[in-house]
Amino acid sequence: MRAGGRLVVIGAGLAGLRAVETARREGHTGELVLLGAEERAPYDRPPLSKAALAPGAAEPVPFRTAEELRDDLGVDLRLGVEATGLDTAAREVLVRDERLAYDALVVASGARPRPVPGDHLRGVTHLRTADDAAVVRRALDAGARTVVVGAGFIGSEVASAARARGLEVTVVEAADVPLQRSLGPEVGRLVTRLHRDAGVDLRLGSGVAGLTEVAGHVRGLTLEDGTHLAADLVVLGVGVAPATGWLEGSGVDLHLLDRGVVCDDTLATSAPGVWAAGDVAHAPHPLVGGDLLRVEHWTSAAEQGAAAARHALDPASAEPLAPVPYVWSDLFGHRLQVVGTSVADGVVVLDADDGGVSGTAALWHRGEQVVGALVVDRPRVVMKLRRRIADAGSFDEALHAARELLGRAGT
Amino acid sequence: MRVVADRDTCEGLGMCEAMSELFEVGDDGYVVVHDEQPPESARADVRAAVDACPVLALRLEG
After folding, report:
1. N or C end of chain B, less CB within 10 A?
2. Which residues of chain A does B14 touch, with a Cβ-Cβ cutoff of 8 Å?
């Protein structure tokens, strides 16, 4: 990008924040525009389904306030504003009637909850934003009878928050185990134990037929088998889809299945001067044999946001980027940490000595290579396994190392 | 250059350990900083570790 040009970043989540911070750190002196759909300055999302649901939790503190972004980083910050289109030939972002010219563009518009019939009702919410978290927290404060739809990370954490308050909670999941899509059936069975040991009414293999309401307020939901569950609060944890409607027809290639932005391994999109980062971005990853991988984790957003800005400013310096995916979850007093991928040829579960869930680990492999690992309540172990995954290490050696790290040598 | 880890904030998530061998998560689940005054040559890695911390528990001074 020419010196003194204008870098525009769409999306004021973590990836967008890291993009503007990095741009200034790398010496960008030109204009720097950051658009955010929410009215809030960038804030941290992982706590929204964890600490933010506890009694008396405060509103999220932004990473940097709007004033700090404007005064300290010289960001032209526009909050409560969404891009509505993109003209790649003219190099202009459309914001309703306005055209915002760019020399380079970082797309970090993130993802939005997939719509569900009835999600407009009072007492029904997705959990994506700080406002959503406040809705859930207030309902839990009021002792809501809670039903969670979807036993992924978000849904499972909401159930955990409800049980931590001693509230009854039902989780409805279409798959046979929780977290099946993220972790597969073997590890999912472990998570089933966590839910049931904590007293969650977990309904597996259950689809939702519809919600019931009175005067616009949810009263419960009906499962496909006809069961009716009364509820004051229904939290939808059914996944997100990339927020890329504004890119349709722009010339930026979008993924056939989920409409995420297709990038190369440097996060360049198919349009000149346009880069992508975070939840929105598909990039080829060596852990899955060079296939496209779209990761919704905090660490990927942070690393990709910084890299996309560096590459946008100086495309000649762009280098392939393949951060090892990493996600953690706090469930029912346990910490799960997952590195790498579970899209693999197979998995070996290392059971804890006492048969409990704490101390369990699992390792995934593709051929002879270790590609993923999960550990429960063993924080010292996970990054040592991550290193082996990053180095495309041997699965047998990783298994041996994991047993040693877990104090299970000789097993 | 001085690295400061806030143990009250640290959750032992370990991203710093992924970025630099200066850091390691201990058995108690908190970060151990092996050298709080690392050589200048470690600056880029330490910077990456500070930026990578999901709970902003690390600070780089000087």
Report:
1. C
2. 337, 379, 382-383, 386
